[in-house]
Amino acid sequence: MFLPILFALLFLFSSSNAADFCVGDLYGPQGPAGYSCKKETLVTVNDFVYSGLAAAGNTSNLIKAAVTPAFSAQFPGVNGLGISLARLDLAVGGVVPMHTHPGASELLVVVEGSICAGFISSANKVYFKSLNKGDIMVFPQGLLHFQINAGKTPALAFVSFSNPSPGLQILDFALFGDDLPTDIIQETTFLDVVQIKKLKGVLGGTG
Prior knowledge:
Elements: H1 2-14, E1 30-31, E2 34-35, E3 65-70, E4 84-90, E5 95-100, E6 106-112, E7 115-120, E8 126-131, E9 136-139, E10 145-149, E11 155-161, E12 169-170, H2 171-176, H3 182-189, H4 193-203
Antiparallel strand pairs: 1-2, 3-4, 4-11, 5-10, 5-12, 6-9, 6-11, 7-8, 7-10
Domain Cupin type-1: 51-197
Keywords: Apoplast, Disulfide bond, Glycoprotein, Manganese, Metal-binding, Secreted, Signal
Protein name: Germin-like protein
């Protein structure tokens, strides 16, 4: 009596329809849970391999920094797995301004150089430190945080996220890089109009 029941259970679990993975179909619809799944018959090993983080990003820009993502949009194998990665290159004087990732916590590991990094808690307490090669720092989900090259040589770090699409909002661009009217910014930030218009000019905002 016991053996037939055991065999029946083994058959039930071995024939389960539970998927091992959900490689993102980048040509299909995307919802809050991520991309829809690519047909398993079309999945190859290349869906689980990504080489895009091997090359340094272009830091010839306003912030002298580059973030190269390996999110589900670039690396469909991480779709649905609750993980992703990115490469962070900081030239001398480079900075990643105050920003948040609404959908994920972040873990940063310094590979080269020195990076001053920190975040602000919801109680407005500041946690920051200069990190060196091999140091790791975590940034809790949704909190404002930043990274600055704290040395005299280029810095390199890799960051992992607890979401294949962590999202991003940069505070400076949210305030000064769009069409939010100057008078509203003035009233909500206590900055003067001249400074606001100067920042809008630098960051491409209007209004």
